[in-house]
Write a structure and sequence with these properties.
Elements (H helix, E strand, L loop, with lengths): L3 H30 L23 E5 L5 E5 L5 E2 L5 H12 L1 H7 L27 H8 L7 H16 L7 H10 L1 H12 L7 H12 L2 E2 L1 H12 L17 H11 L5 H7 L4 E3 L4 E6 L3 E6 L10 H14 L5 H5 L29 E2 L5 E2 L4 H9 L1
Helix pairs in contact: 2-3, 2-10, 4-7, 5-8, 6-8, 12-14
Length: about 375
């Protein structure tokens, strides 16, 4: 019979082994794609063109705060369009679902992120992930003047990241100086009555929003915050009302990858958002936040390495949202995988079951260590 001390020692050794296996899986993907030379660094914003095309990082964060990272995970870059779902959540908190839906829809467009306005039958942008919808969403941030609105936005990102948020002023000025297309979109929106008269103030806030500095680790923490019902897993601070998690994740799933959204939903199957600085973050609800950073972009403005890594993680660990429905092993039916064996291409990460529930604060609870999480997702 094991004594409590021996049991604790055994659990500790198992945890170390499981963490090593997860790191090995991420390291394998990093090694596989670090020399991939496809894609090009964004240059339509001059400051973004200064990025090193070889920067590459992968990070995963669990709802219990475990962090797994490889590569240039501390390299700072600007959040760009990955900011849009979080600001959409703030607009929902400020105004409520019905009021936001009157100003911004939730329909995918199939268009590029910076396409000139396409309005739906209600005279509104189709969704908050295209630039027109994001500008409309940013215009809804409450505050007495531009300084208070900026401070509220920075406070929002502080809650998600777990540290003070900063704007990269050189990128902000670069966007402000060269953002002619966004300026044209904003004035067209003013013409159609979609935003108020303070167009330049709205654009400044939008450019500042896109110029917030993050790391790959930060984005994984932000993804894990959404996965954890809106509560930052590192600080325990709530960043988003649990009532609006569904709204944000739904828009990310259907619209987050622009004119690649359908193929992403088919091949990866996770709520996600990309940015032209080279970041992609994805959410496995109740289980994981994932982020990849690599500045080389495909023609749609998505990170080439980021898409490859997310595709393999989804396939190898069965992370697609519909895998659980089709396999039924995350639910009531028994696991059909023979004892002692793994699905082809999967990495063994543990053998304990995991159980999650939503407490009164809307947070995921229950056993949630990283190995159990990846094991349950894989099945």
């Amino acid at each position: 019979m094991n004594t409590p001390s021996k049991q604790n020692e055994s659990n500790s050794m198992r945890s170390i082994t499981e963490r090593s296996r997860i790191f090995a899986a991420l390291n394998e993907l990093h090694l596989k794609y670090r020399n991939l030379g496809e894609g090009a660094v964004a240059d339509y914003i001059p400051e973004l063109a200064r990025a090193n095309p070889d920067w590459f990082a992968i990070c995963a964060v669990t709802p219990d705060g475990q962090i797994y990272e490889i590569g240039d995970y501390e390299q700072q870059f600007t959040i760009q369009s990955m900011s849009k779902p979080f600001v959409y959540g703030l607009a929902l908190e400020d105004h409520g679902r019905d009021a936001v839906l009157q100003r911004v829809g939730v329909e995918p467009t199939g268009d590029a992120f910076n396409s000139i306005i396409k309005l739906d039958s209600s005279n509104r942008p189709h969704n908050p992930c295209v630039n027109a919808g994001a500008i409309a969403t940013t215009s809804m941030i409450k505050g007495n003047g531009p300084t208070e609105r900026l401070n509220r936005m920075l406070e929002l990102f502080r809650k998600y990241i777990g540290r003070k948020a900063y704007v990269d002023m050189s990128v902000f000025m670069s966007e402000r100086t060269t953002g002619h297309r966004n300026r044209a979109i904003a004035y067209l929106m003013l013409n159609f009555g979609m935003i108020e008269n303070e167009v330049e103030q709205i654009l400044d806030l939008y450019f500042q929003q896109c110029s917030i500095l993050v790391t790959c680790r930060d984005m994984a923490v932000m993804g894990a915050t959404l996965a954890n019902g809106g509560v930052n897993p590192l600080t325990g601070e709530r960043a988003l009302d649990a009532n609006y998690i569904r709204d944000v994740l739904t828009v990310m799933y259907t619209c987050g990858m622009y004119d690649y959204a359908g193929e992403w939903a088919y091949s990866v199957g996770l709520p996600a958002k990309s940015g032209v600085a080279g970041g992609i973050f994805a959410v496995v609800p109740n289980k994981l936040g994932i982020a990849v950073y690599s500045p080389r972009l495909d023609p749609r403005g998505n990170s080439v390495r980021g898409i490859r890594v997310c595709e393999e993680l989804s396939q190898n660990f069965g992370m697609h949202l519909f895998d659980a429905l089709l396999d039924q092993s995350v639910g009531c039916a028994p696991d059909k995988t023979p004892a002692g064996s793994l699905p082809e291409g999967a990495v063994e990460v543990g053998d304990q079951a995991t159980s999650h529930s939503i407490n009164e604060n809307g947070c995921a609870s229950g056993s949630a260590n990283a190995a159990n999480i990846l094991n349950s997702v894989r099945r």
